[in-house]
Model the fold of this input.
Amino acid sequence: MNLIIIVCIALAGGCGASLRYFIDSKLPKKNFPTGTFTVNALGSLGLGIINGLAISGTLSTDIAVVLGGGFFGAFTTFSTASLEILQMISANSIKKAYFYLVSMLFTCVILACIGTLIFAY
Done:
């Protein structure tokens, strides 16, 4: 990996993290962490698309690494989702925490699969 790729990953990561912050700040958070759920779902679909394009040979490995590891790696946030689940459990909202965990995991995996399958073949 050369220095140009590393710099591109860092720049793409900054863009992904900034977009995540923007989206999260615009969505309601009162009863459900909508922002985190949304960015993780969109990021999973986006990463699936990148994966599909890389599998099909449409996208170079370098671009896939910059977009996948840089942009979508910074855009999505497993750590924030984990903390939100812990906060729900601490507030004795066990059912809500379970629903959030299962729905986010299911949604993200399905969207990553859809993105991959549509663009890989």
Summary: The mean pLDDT is 96. The chain is about 85% helix and 0% strand.
